[in-house]
Design a protein that fits this description.
Chain lengths: ~280, ~350, ~290
C-alpha cells in the first residue's frame, strides 16, 4: 500500500515537473522551428511544429536586412570592453575597500551602494546630454563608459577579498612584493571564482541589454544586435515571423552556447548574487 | 645577523594603548622567545619589528639602524605566521621563490637556492605540488623554507607550531632549535605556551598587559622569578602562591619543592591536609592537598599516596619565595623578609 | 611627512579613484543634473533657449491623465508581477527541493534559461505565441475548449499578457534563490519538528517560511524595484498600447525624452522618489518581521 502510494506521488511529481519544463523550454523550441519555416507555414492554423523543409535561407534574409555584421561587431566590442574596464576599475577598488583602513572609507563605500540603487532608466537623460556635450554620441563609448564602475561587482569582490587572510598579504609584503604585484599574483588568482561570476554576469546583462543602447544610439553604425533584431519587425514587416525568429536565433545562440557549457556556474553566479 | 632594539616604543590602536614606552634589546644571534598570555602585546612587538604595524611613537632599530621608514620587504626580516600564510594559488616552488623574484634574483640563482633550501627542510619531492595537497607539517616546512631562502638577518615566528598536533609540535621544536644553531641568525619567536618558551629559548621575554615582566634565560626565569606573575606563569603546575596574612604580602613555592609525609614534618612551612585529587603522569605524580586555609599542588617523583589520605606538607625555608603587595619579589636581604618568614614558620605551630 | 608614508596614506584613494570617478560621473552628477532639468523647459536643439520654469513641469505632470494612467499601470504591473512571481517561485522551489536528482538539476537549468536570454528575444517569441489568429497559445486554449484571447492586441488583456511574459522571464531566477534558501535550512530542524509531531503544513508555515524569510524579503525588494522600472517588454510588445493600456512610468519618460525633456526629467524624479521611498519603507517596516539568524 505504502509503496504504491509513494510510486503515485513520484509519478505525479515527474509529470508536474515535465509540464513545468515544457512551459519554460517550449518557446525556445518554437523559436528555432519557426526560424526554419516558410512564410505560409507560419500562418497555418492549427500550427505545426516542424517545417516541411528547413529554410536555411531565412537566416541569410534576416542578416541581409540590415548591417548585421556591424551590429554583431558592436555587441562584441561593447560587451568585452565593459568587462575589461570593469575589471580594471573594480579590482583595485575592491582591494582598497577590503584590506585598507582609510578616512572616509565608509562614505565612499556608501556611494558604491548608492550607485546600486539609482536606476539608469531615470538618469539616462542627463547622461545622454553629458555624453553629447563630450561629442561621444556617435561612438560606442556611451554604451561602455557609464558601466565602468560595476557597483555589484565591487561589492561582491570586496566580500571575497575580505576572506583572504591578511597574513597572506603581509607575507607578500615581507617578500618585498609591491601592492600591484600583490593584486596581480595573489588577490586575483585567489578570486577567480568571484571574478568569473562577475564577468559572466556582465556578459549576459550587457549582451542582452536593450534599453541602454536604445536611448543612447541614434545611428545604425553604433547599434548592437539587440536593437537590430528588435528593428527586424520594422524592416521585414510585422508578420514575417520566420525571418524575425531567424534573427532571434542569432541573438540567442551565443548566450545559449555559453549557458550550455557552464550552466552550473551561471546559475550559481546569478543565485549567489541574490543571496549574498 | 642583527640585533633588535626598541627605544621608548608606544603602540596604540585607535584609543587603546597596547604598549607604552617600552625598551627592549634583543641580542644578535640569539633565540629569543616573547611569551605571555593572549593580548599581552607580544605579537604586536613582533609585527613592529617586521614593519607590518609600525609603532605609534619611539624607534625600532635593526642592527643599530632605525627602520621606522623602511618598508617591511626591505628590512631583511622573514616571518612565519601561525596559519603559515602560504600563497594558495602558487606551487611550493613558486611560494619559495616569490620573495627572490620580487628582489630580482636571477633565475639560475633562484633555482639553486630553492633546491638547496627545499632539500634542507625535506621538501624536494613536493616542489611542484599545490599547497592544498600538503599536510600541516609540510605546509609548515614550506613557510619555513620561504623564510629561509631570503637569508634574512632576523627570523620572526608568530606561534608557528600551534596549528600542529602535539607529537609533530615536539618534533618541530627540536628541528627549530637545530635550525637556529645551523643558521646562527637572530630568532624572535612568539608563543603563549610557556613550555615551548622554556624548551627553545636562549632568552625569554615574558610580557603581561604590554609590560615586560622579566627578561632572562629560561633557567633564571624559573628559579628566580621577578614577581608573582612570572612565578605563576612558568612551570607545570605553576608556583603555589597564597597570602601571608599581612601587608598584602604573599609567599610561594614550586610544587616539586614540597615534601609529603605521613608523619608530622618539622619543615619551615608545614600544614596538614587531605589529598583531594591525584594525577599520575608517569615519572611524577601531582597531588592536590587541601585544608581550610590552603589548596596547593604538590609534585612527587614517587607515587606513595592515595586520594582522601591525610598527609603533612613541608617546604624548606630556602625554597620559599616572598612577594610584596606590589607583587614584586622580596629578596632575602630585604628587612621585611625575616619577619615574613618568621610569621610563616609560626603559622605551622598553630 | 616622509615620502613613503605619504604614499601609503594616499594609496587607497588612488585605488578607488577610477571607481569613484565613474560613480560620480554617471550616478551622482546625473541625479543632480536631472533635478535641474526638471525645472527647465529644455531646448534640445538650442541649449541657450532653455528656460527655467520652476515647478511647471511637476504641475503639468500632476494634471495630466496620461501620467496617472502610466502610474496606475505601473502599480498594477508591479503588484501582480510580484505576487505571481513570489508564489510561483516558491511552488517551483518546493517542487525541486525534494531530492537532488539529475532530473531536478536539469529542471533547474531549464527554468532558469529564460532569465539569461535577452528580453528582446523573449518578447518577440511571446508575440509569436500570443498571435491571435494562428498563435500556439490560442491553439492550446481551443484544444481544451476554452475561449481564445486577443492577448496583446486588446486593451483589456494586454497588461496581463505583458505581466505573463515578465513572470515567465524571471520566475526561474527567483525560484533558484528560494531553492538555495530552502536547502540552507539545517535538516536537524525538520527532524526536530518531526519528533514534535508537527504536520507538514505546520512545518512549512512555522519553520520553512520563517527560515527563508530573509531571502523572501530580498526577492520582494529587488522584484518591486525592478518592476517599477519595467520598459523593455512594453516597448517591444505593445508600444504602450493599445490605447495606453500598457504605458508605464519609464515608457512615459522614454516617450517624452526628446519632445519635452524637462517633463520627462520631472517624471524621472518622481520615479526615483517612489523607488527611494519603497526601499526605505521595506527596510523599516518589514525588517522587523523578518527572521534573521
Amino acid at each position: 500500500m505504502n509503496s504504491k502510494w509513494r510510486y503515485g506521488v513520484t509519478g505525479i511529481s515527474v509529470a508536474l515537473k515535465s509540464v513545468v519544463l515544457l512551459i519554460f523550454l517550449f518557446p525556445f523550441v518554437w523559436m528555432i522551428t519557426t526560424s526554419l519555416k516558410t512564410f505560409p507555414e507560419t500562418m497555418i492554423f492549427p500550427p505545426k511544429l516542424l517545417p516541411a523543409l528547413p529554410q536555411w535561407s531565412n537566416f541569410v534574409t534576416a542578416m541581409q536586412s540590415g548591417p548585421f555584421l556591424t551590429y554583431t561587431k558592436n555587441s562584441i566590442i561593447v560587451t568585452l570592453s565593459i568587462i575589461v574596464i570593469q575589471m580594471l576599475v573594480m579590482i583595485p577598488a575592491a582591494y582598497a575597500f577590503a584590506k585598507y583602513k582609510f578616512r572616509g572609507q565608509h562614505f565612499f563605500f556608501a556611494l558604491v551602494l548608492l550607485a546600486f540603487m539609482i536606476p539608469g532608466q531615470v538618469t539616462f537623460i542627463p547622461i545622454y546630454l553629458m555624453l553629447a556635450d563630450w561629442g561621444l554620441v556617435h561612438t560606442l563609448w556611451p554604451q561602455i563608459l557609464p558601466f565602468a564602475a560595476n557597483a555589484f561587482g565591487i561589492f561582491l569582490l570586496r566580500q571575497y577579498f575580505m576572506q583572504v587572510p591578511s597574513e597572506i598579504i603581509e607575507s607578500a609584503r615581507l617578500d618585498n612584493a609591491n601592492e600591484f604585484t600583490i593584486m596581480r599574483k595573489i588577490m586575483v588568482p585567489m578570486s577567480i571564482p568571484a571574478l568569473a561570476t562577475i564577468g559572466l554576469f556582465s556578459f549576459v546583462s550587457h549582451w542582452n541589454d536593450y534599453f541602454w543602447p536604445l536611448v543612447m544610439t541614434d545611428s545604425t553604425g553604433v547599434r548592437p544586435l539587440t536593437i537590430g533584431i528588435a528593428m527586424l519587425r520594422e524592416t521585414e514587416g510585422i508578420s514575417n515571423w520566420h525571418i524575425i525568429m531567424a534573427g532571434n536565433v542569432v541573438l540567442v545562440v551565443p548566450i545559449l552556447l555559453v549557458y550550455l557549457f557552464c550552466s552550473k556556474q551561471i546559475v550559481k553566479a546569478f543565485v549567489y548574487s541574490g543571496i549574498k | 645577523m642583527a640585533s633588535i632594539e626598541f627605544r621608548k616604543v608606544t603602540k596604540s590602536f585607535g584609543d587603546s594603548t597596547v604598549i607604552k614606552d617600552l625598551d627592549l634589546t634583543i641580542a644578535d644571534g640569539e633565540f629569543t622567545v616573547l611569551v605571555g598570555p593572549s593580548g599581552c602585546g607580544k605579537t604586536t612587538l613582533l609585527r613592529m619589528i617586521a614593519g607590518l604595524d609600525p609603532q605609534t611613537s619611539g624607534a625600532v632599530l635593526i642592527d643599530g639602524k632605525d627602520v621606522t621608514q623602511i618598508a617591511p620587504g626591505q628590512r631583511g626580516v622573514a616571518m612565519v605566521f601561525q596559519n603559515y600564510a602560504i600563497y594558495p594559488t602558487m606551487s611550493v616552488r613558486e611560494n619559495i621563490e616569490f620573495g627572490l623574484k620580487n628582489n630580482k634574483v636571477s633565475k639560475e640563482e633562484r633555482t639553486e637556492l630553492v633546491e638547496s633550501i627545499s632539500a634542507t627542510v625535506g621538501l624536494s619531492e613536493y616542489l611542484d605540488r599545490k599547497p592544498s595537497t600538503l599536510s600541516g607539517g609540510q605546509r609548515q616546512r614550506v613557510a619555513l623554507a620561504r623564510a629561509m631562502v631570503k637569508k634574512p638577518s632576523v627570523f620572526l615566528m608568530d606561534e608557528p607550531l600551534s596549528n600542529l598536533d602535539a607529537k609533530l609540535r615536539i618534533q618541530m621544536r627540536i628541528e627549530l632549535i637545530e635550525l637556529h644553531k645551523k643558521l646562527g641568525t637572530t630568532f624572535v619567536y612568539v608563543t603563549h605556551d610557556q613550555v615551548e618558551a622554556m624548551s627553545m629559548a636562549d632568552t625569554i621575554v615574558l610580557m603581561n598587559k604590554g609590560v615586560i615582566q622579566q627578561e632572562a634565560s629560561p633557567d633564571l626565569i624559573y628559579r628566580e622569578p621577578n614577581n608573582r606573575f612570572t612565578a605563576q606563569f612558568v612551570g607545570v603546575p605553576p608556583m603555589n602562591v597564597a597570602p601571608l596574612g599581612t601587608d598584602g604580602a604573599h609567599f610561594g613555592f614550586r610544587p616539586e619543592s614540597a615534601v609529603l609525609t605521613r608523619t608530622p614534618s618539622d619543615a619551615w612551612f608545614r600544614y596538614k591536609g587531605v589529598i583531594t585529587t591525584r594525577e599520575m603522569l608517569g615519572s611524577e605524580t601531582i597531588y592536590q592537598v587541601k585544608n581550610e586555609q590552603f589548596t596547593f599542588m604538590i609534585k612527587c617523583y614517587e607515587d606513595l599516596f592515595t586520594v582522601d589520605e591525610h598527609v603533612y606538607v613541608g617546604v624548606p625555608v630556602e625554597k620559599i619565595m616572598l612577594f610584596g603587595a606590589d607583587e614584586n619579589r622580596i629578596p632575602r636581604e630585604d628587612p621585611r623578609a625575616a619577619d615574613y618568614l618568621e610569621r610563616l614558620r609560626r603559622q605551622g605551630d598553630e | 611627512m616622509n615620502n613613503t608614508t605619504r604614499w601609503d596614506t594616499l594609496r587607497p584613494y588612488v585605488m578607488i579613484l577610477p571607481a569613484m570617478l565613474a560613480i560620480l560621473c554617471f550616478v551622482i552628477y546625473p541625479v543632480f543634473y536631472l533635478l535641474k532639468l526638471s525645472f527647465y523647459r529644455y531646448n534640445l536643439l538650442n541649449k541657450a533657449k532653455s528656460k527655467f520654469i520652476g515647478l511647471d513641469n511637476y504641475k503639468q505632470l500632476f494634471s495630466k491623465d496620461e501620467f496617472y494612467v502610466a502610474l496606475n499601470n505601473t502599480l498594477i504591473y508591479t503588484v501582480t508581477v510580484v505576487l505571481l512571481t513570489i508564489v510561483i517561485a516558491l511552488l517551483l522551489a518546493l517542487l525541486i527541493n525534494r531530492k537532488k536528482t539529475r532530473f531536478n538539476a536539469f529542471l533547474q537549468a531549464g527554468i532558469f534559461t529564460p532569465h539569461i536570454i535577452s528580453i528582446v528575444s523573449i518578447a518577440l517569441v511571446w508575440m509569436l505565441l500570443m498571435e491571435p489568429n494562428f498563435g500556439i497559445l490560442n491553439y492550446v486554449l481551443k484544444t481544451f475548449g476554452l475561449p481564445t484571447s486577443k492577448w496583446l492586441q486588446s486593451s483589456s488583456t494586454s497588461m496581463l499578457s505583458v505581466i505573463l511574459v515578465s513572470v515567465w522571464h524571471n520566475v526561474g531566477y527567483y525560484a533558484l534563490i528560494l531553492l538555495a534558501a530552502l536547502q540552507s535550512v539545517p535538516p536537524t530542524i525538520y527532524e526536530a519538528a518531526a519528533l514534535d509531531n508537527a504536520s507538514r503544513f505546520k512545518t512549512f508555515y512555522k519553520i520553512t517560511l520563517p527560515m527563508i524569510s530573509p531571502q523572501l524579503f530580498f526577492v520582494l525588494i529587488i522584484m518591486t524595484i525592478g518592476s517599477f522600472k519595467v520598459f523593455d517588454t512594453v516597448r517591444i510588445m505593445t508600444g504602450g498600447g493599445p490605447n495606453n493600456s500598457t504605458s508605464t512610468l519609464v515608457y512615459h519618460i522614454y516617450e517624452y525624452r526628446s519632445n519635452n525633456l524637462g517633463y520627462a526629467s520631472a517624471t524621472g524624479i518622481i520615479l526615483m522618489v517612489i523607488i527611494a521611498i519603497l526601499t526605505f519603507v521595506y527596510f523599516r517596516v518589514l525588517a522587523n518581521k523578518v527572521h534573521y539568524q
